[in-house]
Write a structure and sequence with these properties.
single chain; alpha/beta; Purple Acid Phosphatase, chain A, domain 2; seven-stranded mixed sheet; globular
Length: 325
């Protein structure tokens, strides 16, 4: 079978699984096993170049992009035409053996703000909820640079809270670009989306319980592993915006981590690796494993810096999590 035919077959399968949702799909494929020794010589979270990049991004996000809201939103054309649903099935360890399959809709890096319009994002989120997830996991960066970014989009975000087990959010680096990160939490809470910031909750699904936790942003937040794990032990599922927490999560016995941050590079040559690499440990996208732990890194929905993606389609991730037989 040719690569083109194979790609077409994967899209058909994704459409069938997507219950009529109009976005095309792709399979996340088999997990990629990591050795734990992967390192990039330049730490993408530290150093003078990163400081300059972060400062420019913060200034533009706070003081330039907001003035474009309603005037210039080119990504509103690209998102609904390029979005794909990436699907994967996981059997993490540990996992409650009596729990029926759990459907998680993972959304990351939405970056609500001047590059999108509320009607477009609201329509996209409404379509995604037709996938009927049991739980919606939002792994950081819902805003671009100010808490005001999210205000016009709240009606669209409210649809996510209709999942039976709710919608849960963890802080990303762009939440700390805003002068008032607590206001982002309050606005999300006003439409039923709860924030997990170094703490965890017990949820029940099909008569069995699991623990969902959320870690503060690795770079600009204050991650507190002791507080996260103290009440109920290590979470079964951890929301963490930056994937570089993965090896610490594995060391603490956390079986499944859901992350974003990388945008899959946002701009890539066809078939090539990410040009802008946001993970020190090469945890760029997809399903990756180390020992008994698994991480899912989403390319995300939105954009930052530039109002477009090239060679990297935005994605929402639909995961089916079940116990090992």
């Amino acid at each position: 079978m040719s690569s083109r035919s194979s790609s077409r077959a994967r899209v058909v399968l994704a459409h069938t699984a997507a219950s009529g949702v109009r976005f095309p799909g792709r399979s996340l494929g088999r997990p990629r096993r990591m050795s734990g020794r992967e390192r990039r010589w330049l730490n993408p979270s530290r150093g003078i170049l990163k400081l300059i990049e972060r400062t420019v991004d913060r200034i533009a996000s706070r003081y330039v992009y907001p003035h474009l809201l309603g005037v210039w939103s080119p990504y509103s054309w690209q998102l609904p035409r390029r979005l794909v649903i990436a699907e994967g099935a996981l059997t993490p360890t540990p996992w409650p053996s009596a729990m029926p399959p759990l459907r998680i809709l993972l959304l990351t890096d939405i970056h609500a703000g001047p590059f999108l319009t509320p009607d477009v994002l609201g329509s996209v989120l409404g379509e995604l909820m037709r996938l009927e997830p049991d739980l919606v996991a939002i792994a950081g960066d819902v805003v671009t640079g100010t808490s005001r970014d999210i205000e016009p989009f709240l009606d669209g975000f409210a649809a996510l809270a209709k999942a039976p087990l709710g919608a849960w959010f963890c802080m990303g680096n762009h939440e700390y670009f805003t002068p008032h990160p607590q206001h982002v939490i309050e606005l999300l809470d006003s439409v039923g989306i709860r924030t997990l910031r170094n703490h965890a909750v017990r949820l029940e699904h099909g008569g069995a319980r699991f623990v969902l936790g959320g870690l503060d942003d690795l770079v600009l937040g204050t991650p507190d592993w002791e507080r996260l794990c103290a009440p109920a032990g290590p979470p079964d599922v951890l929301l963490a915006h930056n994937p570089d927490v993965f090896y610490e999560a594995e060391r603490r016995g956390i079986g499944l981590v859901l992350s974003g941050h990388t945008h899959g590079g946002q701009i890539r040559f066809p078939g090539g690796p990410p040009i802008v690499r946001q993970s020190r440990y090469a945890l760029d996208e997809g399903i990756l494993t180390f020992r008994s732990s698994t991480i899912v890194v989403s390319r995300g929905l939105g954009v930052s810096g530039l109002p477009l993606r090239i060679g990297v389609r935005p994605e929402a991730v639909l995961l089916t999590v079940r116990a090992r037989v």
